[in-house]
């Protein structure tokens, strides 16, 4: 191999480097669909965003808001809220819709649980979402680290509500759920992300049936804890495929749902195939409620943790 083509496995790979080895190659986009009028992000003129970023850096913490280039970052940060991403900023997967970097992860930070607990207490949060990169290098996929973080958070903020957005724990589900049982969340979220036909291209390394089984098995073991999942729309799926995926989620006992518009992070990622109108998002929400979802957040800028506190309280989010 040419020395110039060797990639340091510990380097965080983004864009073209990250997606060079996925099974279905993606040609870099030369033209982009024009964003419609309803995709508008208002950037608040406030020091709260920079203040929160300073708190995060001082405590060596990472947010998925920053790493995944979330369009709602200015709004959420200006309100002093964030979704924390634990176990580093390098993912062992190469999902072609996601802007989180790929690479060989660093060892777990043993101080992360206490730093997280202290930071959340300092921010006086009442509701927090904890997510992570995929850690296929760990025996339990990182589930025990999730539990340690939840325990540390509750020690500092005993009345807080915690939602977890977990990886798929593929090949590690039993041990991961055993570890999860040691410090249970208030809401268990795992995103199905897209329809099964697009998995090989969008989620290489993941498996649609396994993700459904993880949600169903968690609910079987812990029936009193709500389960939640979400999809991005506009990756190339059909309306019929979306509705079938919603039925699959309900058949696997998922109660809460998020539907949002996919936005291409770079020209090297999967292109946006279409922009779904706000009216169509509402129609999908109506359909989801008609088949038994207890709570649905559906709209162009909805993300899995966007206004998660309001959704958990049963408020409409769009």
Quick gist of this model?
This protein is an alpha/beta fold and 318 residues long.
Account of the protein in words:
The chain has 318 residues and is an alpha/beta fold. It has helices at residues 15-19, 48-58, 64-67, 73-78, 112-123, 143-156, 173-180, 199-202, 208-221, 239-251, 278-290, 308-312, and strands at residues 62-63, 83-86, 90-91, 101-102, 127-132, 161-165, 187-189, 227-233, 256-261, 295-298. The strands form 2 sheets. Strands 1-2-5-6-7-8-9-10 form an 8-stranded mixed β-sheet. Helix 11 links the parallel strand 9 (256-261) and strand 10 (295-298). It is globular. The termini are far apart. The model has no long low-confidence stretch (mean pLDDT 87).
């Amino acid at each position: 191999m040419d020395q110039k083509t060797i990639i340091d496995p510990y380097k965080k790979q983004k864009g073209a480097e990250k997606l060079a080895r996925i099974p279905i190659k993606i040609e870099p986009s030369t033209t982009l669909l024009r964003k419609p009028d309803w995709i508008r992000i208002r950037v608040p003129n406030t020091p709260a965003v920079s203040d929160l970023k300073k708190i995060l850096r001082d405590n060596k913490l990472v947010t998925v808001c920053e790493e995944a280039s979330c369009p709602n970052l200015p709004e959420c940060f200006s309100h002093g809220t964030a979704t924390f991403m634990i176990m580093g900023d390098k993912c062992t997967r190469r999902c072609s819709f996601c802007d989180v970097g790929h690479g060989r992860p660093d060892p777990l930070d043993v101080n992360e649980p206490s730093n997280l607990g202290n930071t959340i207490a300092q921010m006086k949060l009442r509701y927090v979402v904890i997510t992570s990169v995929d850690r296929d290098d760990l025996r339990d996929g990182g589930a025990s680290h999730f539990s340690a973080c939840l325990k540390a958070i509750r020690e500092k903020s005993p009345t807080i509500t915690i939602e977890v957005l977990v990886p798929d724990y593929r090949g590690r589900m039993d041990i991961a759920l055993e570890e999860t049982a040691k410090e249970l969340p208030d809401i268990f979220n795992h995103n199905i992300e897209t329809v099964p036909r697009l998995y090989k291209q969008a989620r290489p390394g993941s498996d649609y049936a396994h993700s459904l089984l993880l949600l169903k098995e968690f609910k079987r073991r812990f029936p009193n804890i709500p389960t939640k999942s979400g999809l991005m729309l506009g990756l190339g799926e059909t309306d019929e495929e979306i509705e079938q995926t919603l039925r699959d989620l309900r058949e696997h006992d998922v109660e809460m749902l998020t539907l949002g518009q996919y936005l291409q992070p770079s020209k090297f990622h999967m292109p946006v195939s279409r922009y779904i109108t706000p009216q169509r998002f509402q129609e999908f929400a109506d359909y989801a409620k008609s088949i038994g979802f207890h709570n649905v957040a559906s709209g162009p800028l909805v993300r899995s943790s966007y206004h998660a506190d309001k959704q958990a309280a049963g408020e409409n989010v769009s």
